[in-house]
Amino acid sequence: RKGGYEYFMLKEIHEQPEALRNTIAPRIVNGLPDFSEEGISDELLRNTKRIVITACGTAMHAGLVGRILIEKLTRIPVSVEIASEFRYANPILDENTLVITISQSGETADTLAALRLAKENGSMTLSIVNVKGSSIARESDFVLYTHAGPEIAVASTKAYTVQLSALYLFAFRFAFVKEKISQQKAQEYITLLEDTIDTVAYVLSYDTQIEAISQRLKSADDLFFIGRGLDYALSCEGSIKLKEITYIHSEAYAAGELKHGTISLITDNVPVIALATQADVYAKTISNVREVRSRGAKVILITNADVQVDASLCDHHIMLPPMEAEFTPFAAAVVLQYIAYYTAVARELNVDQPRNLAKSVTVE
Ligand code: M6R
User: Which residue lies with its CA nearest to atom 14 of ligand 1?
Assistant: First the structure.
């Protein structure tokens, strides 16, 4: 069943190009994102004045990426809420708010409760769900299915990247319908999204490099992920992935927030995984890298292809293939999944079944 892979997690990491293709391709008509199959009308999108994304864990982290993209393209406010908080927070909702729930299983109790609350408060609901006919899918006004196929490993990998792709498709359609981007621009974005599938396939070949780096991470007690903007959203995902399967304590920090407390934890040889893929904040993140480096951190730096990295800046440099800044989350996700996976393997842990965790959390 594992198709020759040692663990389902590794198999599922490798299935990402196909999962992305299966999720993206059916939604493209004449080079534009199209949700007529899903019944998501342009009128609904035109009437949407605000979006609330709610989910748990990795699905919530996909929402963090979605927020940045949707707000950037449309200037329409998006908030991302942890479902277990949202459901008890007496949230402000109305008929012009679209509530997007994201869930691989479609059965997460808190996300389902958040969805029900949204409906009770008169909001329209759209779910991004992987499992057909699941509770969240059945109860939502609209469903945008991801087509990752079954995900067995507790650590979510392919479900996350296809959730990203669904959010990107949504953002492009939404921006187009709201007349925030031209048809040509929407088509260009779609082409770039399709190109991302090949980029993800290419990044799968980074396994040997990352396996070697993981050998140097396996004995860490604490580890930090830092980044800004999209890279911070990815840091959150990299951190949960690592801690859930390696049991190494890790934290994700917005790079600029380090000096407000956390930097006191950076001492000799503490690994810091720094994501610096966004040109607009690259110099800022690099200055944070210098700060942690001068305190002895062991730095693993992840950048785009178009920057020159001074060898003295980091212990390991992982360079993503050339791509537009908005699309780096897909490639960075694979790198972070590999870091978690190979570190867990190096620690001789049961990668697919980490202690205390269930694949689907159907109780509060
Ligand atoms: O099935 P869901 O997407 O609703 O699950 C949400 C989380 O429980 C899940 O993403 C969890 O955080 C993963 N184990 C992380 O890898």
Answer: 155
Q: Could you give the CA distance from residue 207 to residue 260 in angstroms, rounded to a whole number?
A: 35
Rg over alpha carbons for the chain, rounded to the nearest Å, is 20
| Beta strands 249-254 and 271-276, pairing class | unpaired
State if residue 136 touches ligand 1 by the CB under 6 angstroms criterion: no
2 is catalytic: no
Nearest CA to ligand 1 atom 11: 57
Please work out whether the CB of residue 154 comes within 6 Å of at least one atom of ligand 1.
Answer: yes
Tokens representing residue 2 in the block: 């594992």
Strand runs labelled E in the chain: 28-29, 32-33, 50-55, 78-82, 97-103, 124-129, 142-145, 222-227, 249-254, 271-276, 298-303, 316-319
In order of 238, 262, 291, the CA distances from 283 in angstroms are 22, 20, 13
**pLDDT (tens place) for every residue of the chain, 364 residues total:** 788 999 999 999 999 999 999 999 999 999 999 999 999 999 999 999 999 999 999 999 999 999 999 999 999 999 999 999 999 999 999 999 999 999 999 999 999 999 999 999 999 999 999 999 999 999 999 999 999 999 999 999 999 999 999 999 999 999 999 999 999 999 999 999 999 999 999 999 999 999 999 999 999 999 999 999 999 999 999 999 999 999 999 999 999 999 998 888 999 999 999 999 999 999 999 999 999 999 999 999 999 999 999 999 999 999 999 999 999 999 999 999 999 999 999 999 999 999 889 888 888 8
Q: What's the predicted TM-score (pTM) here?
A: 0.97
Catalytic residue of the set 119, 218, 243, 359:
359
Ligand 1 pocket residue status of 74, Cβ below 6 Å: no
